[in-house]
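Late entry, evening session. Most of the bench is empty. Finally got around to the prediction I had been postponing all week. Sequence below, unchanged from the version circulated by S.P.
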Amino acid sequence: MTKATWDLPRTLGALRSSSFSEDRIGIRSVKDELRNNLICRLQCGTPLFPGIVGYEESVVPQMVNAILSRHNFILLGLRGQAKTRLIRMLTTLLDDLLPYVEGCEIHDNPYRPICRRCRNLIQEEGDDTPIAYLTPDHRYVEKLATPDVTIADMIGDIDPIKAARRGQDISDELTVHYGLLPRANRGIFAINELPDLAGKIQVGLFNIMQEGDVQIKGYPVRLPLDLMLVFTANPEDYTARGKIITPLKDRIGSEIRTHYPVTLDQGMAITAQEAWLDRPAPIEVRVPAYIKEIVEQLAFLAREDKRVDKRSGVSQRLPISVLENVVSNAERRALRTKEPAAVPRILDIYSALPSITGKMELEYEGELKGGDAVARELIRVAVGKVYDKYFEGSNVSQIVQWFDLGGSLKLDESLDSAAMVKVLGTIQGLMEKLKALKLGANEPDGVRASAAEFVLEGLYAHRRISRNEERGFGAEERKREAPREEGQQRPNFRRQYN
């Protein structure tokens, strides 16, 4: 339903004979409107929530059921599970335009006015009552729940200044200052982090959810509001900061559980969609597929690691932030070495530790070890898993033998790609293994250098070779089977580049 703004009826009389007739919008509620538009989308096969990945078979069908049932609902899940994005996308199910009495603070229905001001205006003006229009964005009100929210903020209060200016009695309905709920009338009202809302304020939502009205300051002001109420909450908050009181939970029609991506491909799709990689820069940015996989695998491992608090979760913002940091580190290196392309390496993932440690809540065991140590261990395991995807069953004995025979290598972060490829080319059998990554024959040095380092880091992840942060790659130290005599020194097989 789209109309040119100059072709819209501007008075109540013109509205009655238009497509916005009383039969069509006079008694239709917001929930009916959402339901009808959703049915049209389902019949046409139009995507319901474009950009939402991984919820197609779980969360989205439950949301569809809630809307078809005309339920108020809550999205319950850990941080970084797109709860807020989902509820904001409900506006796509609203009509393009909705008429209301011009100047009304609560966007009164011209055919069914509920506030005193609009009732008086229509009685005086009749068919000449001015009409304005709401867009979907104007019909969405969101409030982040905090402990300092008051009933006056949510419902409203008597405004003595307004009464004095208009010369009205303070008990007059026209002196009411409306809160967020009435101002969301004929739209969607969303409360984020519902458990943070004080219990007595949650009680204030009872009437609007069950009886469909609110009362202000004890005066006999009844406002039968037309609203769709949606909430979000984190299960961790039930005990950490507050809880949803039982009578309010009972009035919420559907409780929908969100979740993190189930598969690595889903996670990578979300990260690719949200990460800021297509950035203006004087150089080209090329992110190899295995780098993206390692970054995503890192998040999956963190969610399963016993040293990381599962009640807090590991947000999908972690791989997004890490990938952005990885690209930025590669960009910085390419700019300093004056290379035409920035290609991230494994060492760039280690440089992104600040975007990892701040997004993991550690258990006691993790706190003892330290956030940096836990993050480094997770990166090592992630590299090993992705390495197996490309090189499982591959014969790397030549590379390992090169280190066992005394070879060692230090890769400096500031080393340009051409110099790095030259150094890596001295390791027997290394460059031949890059065929498994399906590199083209004319790939730039940055791509080849990144791929070769990935192979070495994968061998280190599987303890085939060693690596020291200060000294670089070397032979893995192995224990001899024969016991040592007292005072005998263990031979040192860690031969590394200094």
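Two things to note before I forget:
Residues 54 and 266 are 6 Å apart (CA to CA).
The chain has two domains: 30-69+71-96+135-257, 264-475.
Will write this up properly tomorrow.
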